[in-house]
From TrEMBL:
<dbReference type="GO" id="GO:0030313">
    <property type="term" value="C:cell envelope"/>
</dbReference>
<dbReference type="Pfam" id="PF25954">
    <property type="entry name" value="Beta-barrel_RND_2"/>
</dbReference>
<dbReference type="InterPro" id="IPR058792">
    <property type="entry name" value="Beta-barrel_RND_2"/>
</dbReference>
<dbReference type="InterPro" id="IPR059052">
    <property type="entry name" value="HH_YbhG-like"/>
</dbReference>
<dbReference type="Pfam" id="PF25881">
    <property type="entry name" value="HH_YBHG"/>
</dbReference>
<feature type="domain" description="CusB-like beta-barrel">
    <location>
        <begin position="240"/>
        <end position="321"/>
    </location>
</feature>
<feature type="signal peptide">
    <location>
        <begin position="1"/>
        <end position="19"/>
    </location>
</feature>
<keyword id="KW-0175">Coiled coil</keyword>
<protein>
    <submittedName>
        <fullName>HlyD family secretion protein</fullName>
    </submittedName>
</protein>
<keyword id="KW-0732">Signal</keyword>
<dbReference type="InterPro" id="IPR050465">
    <property type="entry name" value="UPF0194_transport"/>
</dbReference>
<feature type="domain" description="YbhG-like alpha-helical hairpin">
    <location>
        <begin position="75"/>
        <end position="192"/>
    </location>
</feature>
Length: 324
């Protein structure tokens, strides 16, 4: 009776061992199995300027779209700076227009009148000089009187030359180099305005991608520094699992190869996957490997993209990847 019980127990043990071996062999034949966690492409929502959050239009778990306004920062100093720079630009543009237009008609009329007056004075001075010169040679006047008339003639002549030059400048308008210098000043002011407008625009914060708000790090009314992550958004459609494949099995996989992904949260479902990336550099097994021998093995990181059209796979969920 004892021998029969012993034989029956031995037979059961053999059957169990055989089933386990068959299952193990079957899994080995099916393909490569590795474990990782669900990940999604993430992006931090960060402001380019610091200030107080006057508006914060998101909460953890909200869906956001790329380019959608999610927060606003109060910066009255930047707004005042923009007004100042726009005023300087307007002034420079008006000055340029004035230079390009040249002299006004009233200025041209006044210049012509000044030249006519100077011509009249010169003609009289010239006539007086000719007449007094004759009288001097006749002995009718003294040399001192002639010198006085000659001096008046020189003054009249110089006044006529000055009036002619002024009239010529009035007709020609401003010099090209002055206009060019003012044009460059307008460009400089425009660049300053563009920079100020950009700084003001940076107070409006938008989402960098379409996805789900994973974390929220600030509340409305708090002060946030430039570059600080206000929140983190995850693109749930760009879902993947990172696993490690031993170097001995690297030849069995390729980019674009189909894979199956199983998640503990959905034990009855198999999610379609595709190998998206295979690392070119070998590394040691991750820390979570069980034995020291496994940790010493060289492995290659493999990124498996998972179909998450339903959006039910969340970052951090453990997942098994089976590569046939």
């Amino acid at each position: 009776m004892i021998n029969r019980k012993f034989l029956a127990g031995l037979l059961c043990f053999a059957l169990l061992a055989g089933a386990a071996g068959y299952k193990l062999m079957r899994q080995t034949e099916k393909g490569i199995t590795a474990t990782g966690t669900i990940e999604v492409t993430r992006a931090d929502i960060t402001p380019k300027v610091g200030g107080y959050l006057t508006e914060l239009l998101l909460e953890a778990g909200d869906s956001v779209e790329n380019g959608k306004v999610v927060a606003r920062i109060s910066r009255s100093d930047l707004e005042a700076q923009l007004l100042r720079d726009e005023a300087a630009l307007t002034k420079a543009q008006v000055q340029l227009q004035d230079l390009v237009k040249g002299s006004r008609e009233q200025e041209k009329t006044a210049s012509t009148a000044d030249m006519a007056a100077a011509q009249s004075v010169f003609d009289k001075a010239k006539h007086d000089l000719e007449r007094y010169t004759v009288l001097y040679h006749q002995g009718a006047i003294a040399a001192q009187q002639l010198e006085s008339i000659r001096s008046a003639y020189d003054v009249a002549y110089n006044s006529l030359v000055a009036a002619q030059a002024k009239s010529s400048l009035t007709e020609e308008g401003n010099r090209p180099d002055e206009i060019q210098a003012q044009q460059e000043e307008v460009k400089r002011c425009q660049a300053i305005v563009d920079a100020s407008r950009s700084a003001v625009a940076d107070t409006v914060i938008t989402s960098p991608l379409t996805g789900l708000v994973l974390t929220k790090n600030f509340e409305q009314g708090e002060y946030v520094n430039a570059g600080a992550p206000i929140a983190t958004v995850g693109d749930m459609n760009d879902c993947w699992v990172k696993v490690y494949v031993p170097s001995a099995q690297l030849a069995l996989i390729a980019v674009g190869q189909a894979a199956e992904v199983k998640v503990d949260a959905f034990p009855d479902r198999v999610f379609a996957g595709t190998i998206k990336e295979i690392s070119s550099n070998a590394e040691f097994n991750p820390r979570q490997s069980i034995t020291q021998r496994e940790r010493a093995n060289l492995v290659f990181a493999v990124k498996v993209k998972v179909d998450n059209a339903e959006g039910i796979l969340k970052p951090g969920l453990p997942a098994d990847v089976i590569i046939p």
